[in-house]
Specification:
By secondary structure, the chain is an alpha+beta fold. The protein has a single domain, classed as Alpha-Beta Complex (Fumarylacetoacetate hydrolase, domain 2). It is 17% helix and 28% strand. Strands 1, 2, 3, 5, 6, 7, 10 and 11 form an 8-stranded mixed beta sheet that branches.
């Protein structure tokens, strides 16, 4: 059994998922190991560069577990983390259920089902090393590299009148270096990414439930983090969010 902080190159052949569907079936088992309601969902590999980096041909969905989710300003440990990067993301909390259906959901439909928009930081990790060689099915089984997630306060309702695809998102590392990105770096825009997630779940027979949060992928190239550091992501008029790492 893989212990905390350890990793494997791949799963044993007898239980190794080969298809995306098999990966999602393995991922679903994670919910048996949490005592809390599912916090929400994440999307990995929302840019061509990100997909090329981990050798996949499209985005991957993962579950956000409540035990791994925090508020802005939280302090978390990087013990056992091998990726050691921070990502700045747009996250949506849903107002109503979006159930599986035959027709694809449009970005306009999914935005109409959103309650609030939030700034967010994701600190991903993987049980595979090197994770870049694990492949889509195993990475999906590995919860799409989900680990820590930090959710900021809901932003003002003006966000609905903004072009989120063009909205700048700036990561600020512990040395003060600014890592600049924008919303269009996630599949062309956060609303497009949200619709992708809803349709991915729909194809799996899963309802995106009211109250759940969807974080839509990093808007800038992930930057390096280390124990003892504090980093931030600035969303301009939509707020700022921070995370601290235990020394």
């Amino acid at each position: 059994m893989v212990g905390e902080g350890s990793c494997v190159a791949h799963l044993p052949a007898a239980i190794r998922p080969i298809t995306r569907a098999e990966g999602y079936a393995a991922q679903r088992a994670l919910e048996a190991y949490t005592t809390q309601a599912l916090f929400g969902w994440k999307i990995a590999a929302t840019s061509v560069a990100g997909q090329q980096h981990i050798h996949v041909d499209g985005p991957l969905a993962g579950r956000l577990l409540a035990e791994r989710c925090f508020s802005s300003g939280a302090t978390v440990s990087l013990k056992g983390n091998r990726m050691l990067v921070a990502e700045g993301e747009f996250a949506f909390r849903m107002a109503c259920d979006l159930s599986p259906r035959a027709a694809a959901y449009t970005p306009a439909e999914v935005l109409a089902a959103v309650a609030t928009l939030h700034p967010a930081i994701e600190i991903p990790n993987s049980r595979f090393c090197p994770f870049e060689e694990a492949g889509a099915a195993q990475l999906i089984a590995d919860n799409a590299c989900a680990d820590y997630f930090v959710l900021g306060a809901a932003v003002p309702e003006i966000w609905r009148s903004l072009d989120l695809a063009a909205h700048p998102v700036i990561g600020i590392d512990a040395r003060g270096v600014r890592h600049v990105g924008e919303g269009r770096n996630v599949l062309g825009g956060p609303a497009i990414a949200l619709a992708w997630l809803v349709n991915e779940l729909s194809g799996l027979g899963i309802t995106l439930a009211a109250g759940q949060v969807v974080t839509t992928g990093t808007c800038f190239k992930p930057f390096a983090v280390a124990p003892g550091e504090r980093v931030a992501v600035d969303f301009g008029a939509l707020g700022r969010i921070e995370i601290r790492f235990a020394a």
